From TrEMBL:
Protein name: NADP-dependent oxidoreductase domain-containing protein
Residue numbers marked as site, Lowers pKa of active site Tyr: K83
GO molecular function, one term: oxidoreductase activity
UniProt binding sites for substrate: H116
SUPFAM superfamilies noted in UniProt: NAD(P)-linked oxidoreductase
Domain NADP-dependent oxidoreductase: 30-281
Active-site residues, as the UniProt record annotates them: Y53 (proton donor)
Amino acid sequence: MIPKRCIKLSDRKHIDLPMVGLGTYPITGDVGKEAIKTAINLGYRMFDTAVAYGNETIVGEAIGETLRECNYLTREDFFIISKLSGSYHRSGLVEKCCQMSVDRLGLDYVDLYLMHTPVALMAEDYCTEGRPHPNAIDNTVEPTEAWLGLERCYQEGLCRSIGVSNFNADQIATLISNTAIVPAVNQIECSIGFNQKSLRKFCRQQNILVMGYAPLGKQKLPFLNHDLLQRIARTHGKTAAQIDEGVVPIVKSANCSRQKENADIFDFKLTAQQLNELDALTGSQ
């Protein structure tokens, strides 16, 4: 079973979440639903979706069907993440977007609701699942306005925790200075080839958990084939893709064997020397 860790919330509560999650983009349709159910059978309990992915409905169906088919899992065993649409950053619209996500998932709440991006899009009703999002950016809407809406979603019980995605340190600092709740999570692209060391350090200082998507890198092969990474992997009896960077990874695969490999990363720990070697390889970003 995938182990858990806790995240602290600003009101001194904490919640537990699995140490690895399955990213569901671009998993869709009946094949996607079966892939999610396969992941559940392998022990995955955290699933990451978003309005923009167009698959909240099938994620919810996979979880709902699993709960009806087995007698050893409950809703509380799952940690479900969804994300605010960029076109819903305005006051009064954030709660609407969150409620629609909850409804599509067939749940009473989501465990973590993220602002998908600090960038607001033009105010059109693009929150219909799977509908293309506009590219027009609306610079009149500050991220703080959307964050205040996320705070209301949290206070109303639509979500158990709130956070951000794709935010830099300055953008997070602005939120912290102007709002009541510190983000519990910052979900960012993070891999050995793009380690975001300085941003991770800032988040750690603010007690913000870092989740890393694309943990293998968007250009996977160059670093996975590097001699250093291969050597460290052999030392621990792992593949290069399983080397852990100390970030909660959001892995993406509809393939059963890859899902299993991605979850099998908790029986070893990198040494200080190995971590330093990896830092020297990728630089301090």
